Amino acid sequence: MGRICSTLFAVLILTIGLSAKPALPDRIIQSIVGINYTNAEGHALFCTGTTVATGVVTARHCLGDNITVDDEASAVIKVSGQLALLRPTSHKPALDIRTKPLRLGDHLLSFGYAFGFMEVLTRNVSRLWDAGLSVSVDAPFGQGMSGGPTVDMDGKLVGIIQASNELTGIISGQVELMEFVK
After folding, report:
1. Is 99 a member of any domain?
2. Whether 58 and 129 share a structural domain
């Protein structure tokens, strides 16, 4: 029930903020999944996943034992670099990956289950590393948002949330993402 309420709240906020594209937030939110797993110390942890054409992509550090996607058992298909691909457990709309390179200052939206509740954050590209392999954005992400999508203002996937500190957030870049999901 909490997840439904937080999702509806996020849709309402984004619909108000992006009234020219009312279908955008709903389509993105429908592509997002919750991932539960157990780490090496036996702690139950939570991340976010993003549905793409080949499965559910998430951050590599979201892997452990007893992986579930939306409360159903899942399996790892592939791991490379910062990313992991999981077997989907249900049919969700897949996000398209942006092919046009990001530029400094591009406006982005990041989605994920921060502390177990859907959160939508507005970010700007502040730094590009290694020819688009990693992207730094101008503010941090909440715990649990790892693996969530970051999209451009047209709803195209530009990266997967990886990490943050008190000042910035890091997403995997679209170059790595495009190669990974082939």
Report:
1. no
2. no
Mean pLDDT of 8-12: 39
Q: How many domains does the chain contain in total?
A: 2
Residue 95 domain-assigned (yes or no): no
Beta bridge partners of 152: 108
Tell me the three state secondary structure of residue 22: coil
Other beta carbons within 10 Å of 166: 6
**Containing structural domain, residue 140:** 107-180
Q: How far is CA 41 from CA 2, 46, 144, in A?
A: 28, 14, 18
pLDDT digits over 113-130, tens only? 988 788 788 787 777 766
* Position 126, amino acid: S
**Cα 9 to Cα 119: distance, rounded to the nearest angstrom:** 9
CA atoms within 13 A on the CB side of 80: 12
Looking at the fold, whether 75 and 8 belong to one and the same domain comes out as: yes
